[in-house]
Design a protein that fits this description.
about 170 residues, about 65% helix, signal
Length: about 170
């Protein structure tokens, strides 16, 4: 085989082998970048630190990204105490689309985390996160409503008395 033909064959094979690598290098600048925030797991401690450092409004904007409100709702619904403790600071900045789902998560956690949920209610019984709004009985099964009523009735903390009464009235349909 002539030398130039062998060289041509090697060049073709070598060039084809490098083609994917050079294509990757050529288009590397257009590849999407992953932010550190997207790879960081969202947890209550991180949100609490963000509340301290950036404030509630900025933290609420942060939760607008990467399904942060969904994660918060799931944690509240599951009764995770550290997440529930974040609610009072975030409540004024909850986007309107998230208000009712967050109320439902709070209602769901009410029978198991009664004291924690009642403590997060608006003490003025406001229309957004007051006891009358959060504890409405419309989406509770009769069994869940019964458990929630019993749980709220069992609270004996004077600091939460008004909130508990607002919630109880809503659960009882009064």
């Amino acid at each position: 085989m002539p030398r130039h033909k062998r060289t041509l064959e090697l060049a073709v094979v070598f060039g084809l082998a490098l083609l994917p690598a050079t294509a990757c290098l050529r288009f590397a600048h257009s590849a999407p970048t992953i932010t550190v925030e997207a790879t960081t797991p969202l947890n209550a401690r991180m949100i609490a630190q963000r509340l301290d450092s950036d404030g509630a409004e900025a933290t609420a904007r942060f939760l607008d990204k990467d399904a942060g409100w969904l994660r918060l709702r799931r944690a509240v619904s599951a009764g995770w105490k550290n997440w529930i403790a974040l609610l009072p600071a975030l409540q004024p900045y909850v986007p309107e689309a998230e208000v009712e789902p967050l109320r439902a998560a709070m209602r769901h956690a009410l029978p198991t985390r009664t004291r924690d949920i009642v403590a997060t209610l608006d003490p003025k019984n406001g229309t957004v996160f007051g006891g009358g709004a959060v504890c409405r009985r419309h989406d509770l099964t009769p069994a869940a409503r019964f458990r929630a009523i019993r749980a709220v009735e069992s609270l004996h903390d004077i600091r939460d008395e008004e909130r508990a009464q607002d919630c109880l009235r809503a659960l009882q349909g009064r």
